[in-house]
What does this fold into?
Amino acid sequence: MIRAAAFNQGKFPTISFVNLAKAPLEVDLKKLVAALEKQLERDFVPIWGYPAKLQVADKPKPDEWQIVFLDDSDAADALGYHDLTKDGQPVSKVFVKSTVAAGEKVSVTTSHELLEMLIDPGAQMWAQASNSLFYAYEMCDAVEDGEYEIDRIAVSNFVYPSFFESWHKPRSVRFDHLNKVSKPFQTLKNGYQIVSNGSAAREIFGSRRKERHFHEVEDRTMHRSEYRKRITNVRAARTNMPAALVTETGLVADTRTPRAAVLHHAGRLLTELAAMVDPLPGGDPFEL
It folds into this structure.
């Protein structure tokens, strides 16, 4: 949990890339890290102002952040990799088999995870839009289908700080590196975002195709996005659900009467059905 974190102690991070995957990365790891260093120095740091030292390592030091390559989420669970290392440092996971099976590039996924971890290592930051919804402070989710090459290695597009500033008029400033976004908080066609109304968190998608691909093909288990949703919804449960008991495992035990429980779960079903037919993009994702 974030309260056990030991990062951001007055210095910029060293991030170790650790390959524990048996499946091929389909890219040379040292060349990938070199391309990511160039992306940071040339493209990202001048905009976001947060540098880092990148290195390939077999055994990272206790004060180093990590990006770990694993075959899939089962491997992560077996090795105990969650969202912080045992020394309280941020860790991001790249699932090699899952990435390739979803038709994505390991290099782009790695770039995506690196950029987002740098700015919000604890996965707890949000930005409020003019519609009063809170948008997850993630640098790549909304534009995650965009990529470009550095030394013939594909890396991820990313948004600028202006993306999270609702007062900008459409096309008045640049909102992302590839200049595909035209206004704040826009979700591109093959992107998604996590939004919260203060009581719950859920995804919104730039298209129906992306939504189907997200739920049917992509494996987001143990990703930053799932951790963010989990901690948000558990906190909301603790403060806004007096009829429920939050157990030590973080799960909500239903203590309602049978009639109330039936109505509650029927309401959740209707909410999910409404989400399935709600036109995209636009609209309030929390409104029936």
About this structure: The first helix runs from residue 29 to 48. The chain is about 30% helix and 20% strand. The helical segments are 29-48, 73-79, 96-101, 106-119, 208-216, 224-240, 258-277. The chain has a mean pLDDT of 84.
